[in-house]
Amino acid sequence: MNKEELLKGLREGVIEYDEDKVKKLAEEWLKAGYDANEGIFEGLAAGMEVVGDLFAKNEYFVPEVLMCADALYAGLDILRPHVKVDKGKKKLKGEVVIGTVEGDVHDIGKNIVKLMFEVAGFTVHDLGKDVPLDKFVEEQMRTDSDLVCLSAMMTTTMVGMKKVIEKIRAKNPKVKILIGGAPVTKEVAEMYGADGYGRDASNALTEAIKMISSLREMRREDKI
Ligand code: B12
Asked: Radius of gyration (Cα) for the chain, nearest Å?
């Protein structure tokens, strides 16, 4: 199978919730020496996008989508140890709190963002999904993390981010806050008072690095 066929197979495996197919093709992808990141984004995550369309059209329902998520995770388990980040992005040691906000159980995107952070060498405190809003504040204070990352996949739960941001700012104005998830835009991030927004996992890492660097810079200059 050539590269395009493998990617197509990975996408189809997720869409057809065929875990065995995804596992087999993920192994083949690595054996052929292709980039794990590309397999995740152009293969597994791209398949999940199609699943999203089928879900929106009522062709798939929650049980099918859950099985698709299992297939995606099966592939992710195989590709994860081979994910790489640009050398330039590896220099910084950051500490991050991440989670999906209260009322929201979508965690696939959040887990991919977490994966990129871990590969980059960050220490990640993952609170999981459906996280009570105060828990983000408590965990930031407990760990003294540089960055808090909030994920929300629904317009209804996205509003919780604003509350978390206000609570964190009130307790500790030095913390940087990065938000993301399908309904989140740059405008939403500005409106909610976040420091930034990431449209996908690699953009999330770029933004996180920028934020932590500026925090370090400010600390060096004793501005905070
Ligand atoms: C998978 C899925 C589910 C799965 C979740 C499984 C899991 N473990 O995550 C299940 C079946 C459980 C589910 C349930 C529901 N879902 Co759903 N689901 C989806 C679906 C199809 C795919 C989401 C996904 O995983 N995408 C793949 C990942 C890789 O992409 P991503 O999540 O966008 O993440 C990337 C970026 O957004 C970004 N990112 C994400 N988080 C963060 C965080 C930070 C800090 C940063 C910087 C970046 C970042 O980086 C990620 C990686 O590149 C979407 C459709 C869609 N188009 O998004 C609907 C969708 C999100 N679901 C929806 C709905 C309505 C529901 C339900 C209410 C359905 C129901 N009737 O029960 C329930 C809600 C349950 C709840 N309380 O949360 C709606 C939301 C509509 C809205 N605008 O509010 C969507 C958009 C479908 C639709 N078109 O109607 N769902």
From this structure: 18
